[in-house]
Amino acid sequence: MTSPEYGHHFSLQNLPFGVASSVQHPKPQCATRLHNIVIFLGDLQRSGLFARVSDLPEEVFDESTLNTYAALPKATHRAVRQTLQATLQDCSTASLPPTSVEDITKVQLHLPVAIPGFTDFSCSLDHVKNAGRAILNDESPPPGFFHFPIGYTGRASTIVVSGTPIVRPLGHFYDRSAPAEKKPVVYGPSRAMDYELEIGVIVGKPLPPNQGLNARDADEHIFGLVILNDWSARDIQGCEMVPLGPLNGKAFGTSISPWVVTLDALDAFKATGPAPRVELPGHLQDLGKFNYAIDMTVELQHGGTTSVLSKSQAQNMFWSGRQMCAHLASTGCDLRTGDILGTGTVSGSQEGSYGCLLEITKGGKAAAQLADGSSRVYLQDGDVVRMSAVAGGEISGVGFGECIGELKPARVF
């Protein structure tokens, strides 16, 4: 069941969308959340609450994913949101059907969407500079970084909802402990497990193939945002990245938070991102406030101790979610409802703002100190990584709740 710790993230100004089940609602179905109350939207639709919302399909909220709803026009989403806000304006659920509301501790949360595709980008200039220093002792960004948001295709089938354990993967990597100058490639459990603090952009309204998309028009196709932890086996990744890039070092598990926070809920927190360094083609030009002022935190929990590993800000990312969508579509690629586009690690330029252990430990050369006096270079079995995010301040802002996962031992091979 789900912790009530982040109830303050889900005010009337938020009203995110997710998928939940419970004893009273055994079939996973669409829901929203007000503080620590989960509201099952199918019950509200049957009660006639959304009768005035045009183009809302019957029983759309009884489905086990949000895909059908997410694909609807933004005008329909806004009408549903406004209806909910008007009904709940005093933050009371007393007027709702009794069957529609349950305490957060009584429900099970599920993946909010069926995910046809996953593309992970690298949108933080600070991250690529920090990682470059850690790995190559060279902070120069990749050649294409300032021209377009670089990325790679990930494994959509291994995306799991927050709370799902992550099993340490097996793979090929260089045995750094071997005495030989030329390190042998061995196969076994990863020895360099890491996390990556990211935001996931969820596609709503689909875009057909060969249509293209301008970044400034992409909001119509973005259903909302989630926290995303792109778990990474750094040794496996390092062995396979030349010449084609990540595969098994990333393809074993990616966690997302269960509640999709809509762009309408985040509208008040738009922020101006970094200025372009080169002249961009028309489809990537996105002037004005294209980022969001979202504060993000990573904590590590082990043996009853919680240590804050980093705090970073999404508004500093060089490329926006809209530009990621536009770049992916620029070749003629389609966008499908439920597609997830990851921002890449959200990092800052100072210690304490690094969004992964690779940066914190300078590529494994230093140890991160924990609150109980112990240290980490990379994750140990039993470590729990918890990420949280909020826009507008922890007390009265619009939050995402948590994205949490425990690292389990590798399977026997």
Q: Could you tell me the strand content as a percent range? A: 25-35%
Assign a percent range to the helix content.
Answer: 10-25%
Alpha-carbon distance between the two ends: 32 Å
Low-confidence stretches: none
Integer average pLDDT = 96
Structural class: alpha+beta
Biggest sheet descriptor: 8 strands, mixed
How many helices? The count is 8
| Shape call | globular
Please tally the β strands and state the result.
26
Radius of gyration over all CA atoms, rounded:
21 Å
Task: Kindly describe this structure.
The structure is a single chain. The chain is an alpha+beta fold and 413 residues long. It is 15% helix and 28% strand. It is built from eight helices and 26 strands. The protein has helices spanning 41-46, 67-70, 74-87, 125-136, 234-244, 263-266, 321-329, 357-360, and strands at residues 17-22, 29-34, 37-40, 101-103, 107-110, 118-121, 151-153, 159-161, 166-167, 170-174, 185-189, 193-194, 197-203, 222-229, 232-233, 254-256, 261-262, 270-271, 291-292, 294-302, 305-313, 340-342, 368-369, 375-376, 384-391, 398-408. The strands form seven sheets. Strands 6, 7, 8, 13, 14, 16, 17 and 22 form an eight-stranded mixed sheet that branches. A hairpin with a 6-residue loop joins strand 25 and strand 26 (398-408). The protein is globular, with a radius of gyration of 21 Å. 48% of the residues are buried.
